[in-house]
Amino acid sequence: MNISAQTVSSRFQAASRLAPIGVSEILKITSLAADLKRQGRDVIVLGTGEPDFDTPDHVKEAARRAIEAGETKYTALDGTPELKAAIRAKFMRDNGLEFAQDEITVSAGAKQILFNAMMATLEPGDEVIIPTPYWVTYADIVRIMGGKPVFVRGEEVNGFRLIAEDLARAITSRTRWVILNSPSNPSGSAYSEAQYRPILDMLIAHPNVWLMVDDIYEHIVYDEFRFVTPAAIEPSLRDRTLTINGVSKAYAMTGWRIGYAGGPSALIRSMSVVQSQSTSCPSSISQAAAIEALNGPMEIVRERCKSFQTRRDFVVSALNNIEGVTCRMPEGAFYTFACCAGLIGRKMPSGQRISSDVDFAEYLLHTVGVAVVPGTAFGLAPYFRISYATSVPELEEACRRIAHAASRLT
């Protein structure tokens, strides 16, 4: 008997755990911008969180050597001993943190580290406190695991940072984790030791709450800002802190897919169990490249950081010169998070009213061909995120178009 494709398709039912999850707004915008480009439209995409630089030559050469040496087999489940040694040395050198070999884990990107940690620890209904604005993946991974994301608003007046008093009000008997990201995606804000201190004191008073720290933008900071990480500031929290990092941003290795973390051995073992039944080991070639990145010279990273700072300064200045838009100067990462509250309520040339940051982002894309991400996607409106990890000429043209589009609103 023949069964039509429509009948077969209608039988599919997605797992209920996916019901609250959608495709990332960032990916949607990027996909739409790509579609417009294929149609011949001139579109500048400022939505991707990816350095426009190439992976450094000495890192690529290390990968070639690994291939030629036949290092193409499965490796240890959560990282080769050599890569774990390089990670341990990095934590000690850069952060003053000492980890044993069994306190280090390596995965196919920092996102998998987050996934493994949540899978290994969350029970249905457990709560995870996430300051807004936040990287969209945090909340969706919590939801997939049956947990409940608890959002605490980070006000611009406080640099979009979590405030200890707000954290205290959000903690309940079901709170399992607090997630902190510094420098932040999407705001670029970062915590100094003094700004971390009240939060860490609050966590000391709640011994059942664990801390997850995403330090992926550690090496992209500006204006003499001194990066610090919580486990180094407060050693008493070390045994309930997972410190996450990776090679994707600082070393322009997004496609190599290597993330890593240091934390208590019991947690690391549980995360390894999760990884053993998903991806197993990360790419052997990528691990060899990551060793070279972590052990190699940092001059190129610092040079690129200076380039990002020049772009940041330009974009922030250009946005603040647009009537109706304000933009805070970020301490790190390669994003600006500008407020468009002054444009809400105005009318487009078509007569349609701008009622939200989503409307404004769509207006920019369809009228002047600039793709930005609305703050709503990150849990905080009315803002929009620009990634300035692209060329200066493109940034200049994009800001010119944004200014032109804003000037046409009445």
What does the secondary structure layout of this molecule look like, with pairings?
Elements: H1 5-10, H2 25-38, E1 44-45, H3 57-68, H4 81-95, E2 104-107, H5 110-121, E3 127-132, H6 136-144, E4 148-153, H7 164-170, E5 175-181, H8 193-204, E6 210-214, H9 230-233, E7 241-246, E8 259-262, H10 265-276, H11 284-295, H12 299-320, E9 326-327, E10 335-339, H13 357-368, E11 370-371, E12 373-374, E13 383-387, H14 392-407
Parallel strand pairs: 1-11, 3-4, 3-5, 5-6, 6-7
Antiparallel strand pairs: 2-8, 7-8, 9-10, 10-13, 12-13
Helix pairs in contact: 3-11, 4-11, 5-6, 5-10, 7-8, 12-14, 13-14
**Shape, per Cα inertia axes:** globular
Quote the CATH topology of the largest domain. Aspartate Aminotransferase, domain 2
Strand adjacency order, main sheet? 2-8-7-6-5-3-4
Report the CATH superfamily of the largest domain. Answer: Type I PLP-dependent aspartate aminotransferase-like (Major domain)
User: What structural class should be given to the helix and strand makeup?
Assistant: alpha/beta
- How large a portion of the residues is in β-strands, by DSSP E? 5-15%
Question: Total number of helical segments?
Answer: 14
CATH arch. level architecture of the largest domain:
3-Layer(aba) Sandwich
**SSE series:** HHEHHEHEHEHEHEHEEHHHEEHEEEH
| Overall pLDDT | 95
The unreliable regions are: none
Percent helix, as a range, is: 40-55%
Question: How many domains make up the coordinates?
Answer: 2
CATH class of the largest domain equals: Alpha Beta
Tally of extended strands?
13
The main pleated sheet reads as: 7 strands, mixed
Q: Determine the N-to-C terminus distance.
A: 63 Å
What is the gyration radius calculated from CA atoms? Answer: 22 Å
| Oligomer description | single chain
